[in-house]
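Colleagues,

For the teaching module next term, I've prepared a clean inverse folding example: a structure given as tokens, and then the sequence designed for it. I'd like students to try predicting residues themselves before seeing the answer, so please don't circulate the second half yet.
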């Protein structure tokens, strides 16, 4: 059998034959998670609102990876995504609710449409994913859900009011679902990344007069003096998805280069 795409000799194969749906997998952190899961042997549904990016990631990974277009803020779209996993694989083992967006504004400057869009994609999208995946995981005897929170759930980040609220909501919802479903063999956890080197951060720094200085400031606020790599978040996601994390339930795994340790 050929080596899975992206597999390195040192990587374990903890996810052999696991069926995993990953949202926002067309870019950044989600793409790194799709690569790592595939490298560890998982069958991956690369789900993204940008179908072209989803297809390009699925193509790069090769079979059995599949691309799927989803808007996580729409319940019928999320239901169809989970339905696709059932059609293709007759079940599901892992859901990664990673898709997210942000806007830059403090509380009074946040317009209601921006507020709703950030909450709809980040928090309600995570809720829809869990709502539709949990019955399926339960029917299959258990599984793992990994939600993408942020350090913005733990400390205040300037000019990110809606984003902080959404990511704090994800952390609270993760804990609520974890206690509700641990007895059914479903482990729900979240990851709280610091600043991760993705297209998102590139877009933010491009908006500054001096993008290099903006990036340097982001690097400096993390005690290890650099941005976190998407692969470092993917390594945490793979651990949480694996049986090695069997007793990790309702946790917020902080991967932030020490940012919240200050
Ligand atoms: N980059 C960071 O510093 C950082 C830090 C903490 C948390 N996060 C979180 O990690 C996740 C991924 O961030 P990233 O930096 O990789 O972002 P990114 O913008 O580079 O990639 C996000 C992906 O999500 C997709 N997406 C956006 N809206 C969607 C929707 N409604 N439905 C489906 N897909 C959608 C985009 O098309 C894109 O492919 C987000 O939830 C983000 O909040 C990022």
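(Answer key — instructors only)
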């Amino acid at each position: 059998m050929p080596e899975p795409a992206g597999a390195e000799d040192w990587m374990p194969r903890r996810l052999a034959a696991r069926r995993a749906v990953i949202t926002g997998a067309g870019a950044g952190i989600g793409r790194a998670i799709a690569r790592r899961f595939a490298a560890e042997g998982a069958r991956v549904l690369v789900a993204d609102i940008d179908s072209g990016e989803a297809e390009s990631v699925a193509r790069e990974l090769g079979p059995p990876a599949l691309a799927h277009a989803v808007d996580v803020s729409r319940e019928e779209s999320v239901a169809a995504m989970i339905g696709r996993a059932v059609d293709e694989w007759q079940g599901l083992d892992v859901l990664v609710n990673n898709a997210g967006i942000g806007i830059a504004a403090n509380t009074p400057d946040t317009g209601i449409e921006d507020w709703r869009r950030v909450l709809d994609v980040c928090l309600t999208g995570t809720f829809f994913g869990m709502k539709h995946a949990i019955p399926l995981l339960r029917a299959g005897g258990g599984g793992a859900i990994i939600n993408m929170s942020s350090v913005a759930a733990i400390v205040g980040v300037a000019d990110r009011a809606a984003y902080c609220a959404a990511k704090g909501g994800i952390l609270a919802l993760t804990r609520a679902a974890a206690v509700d479903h641990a007895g059914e063999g479903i482990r729900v956890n979240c990851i709280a990344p610091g600043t991760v080197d993705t297209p998102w951060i590139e877009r933010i720094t491009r908006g500054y007069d001096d993008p290099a200085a903006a990036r340097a400031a982001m690097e400096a606020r993390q005690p290890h003096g650099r941005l976190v790599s998407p692969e470092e978040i993917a390594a945490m996601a793979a651990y949480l998805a694996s049986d090695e994390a069997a007793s990790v339930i309702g946790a917020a795994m902080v991967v932030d280069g020490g940012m919240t340790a200050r």
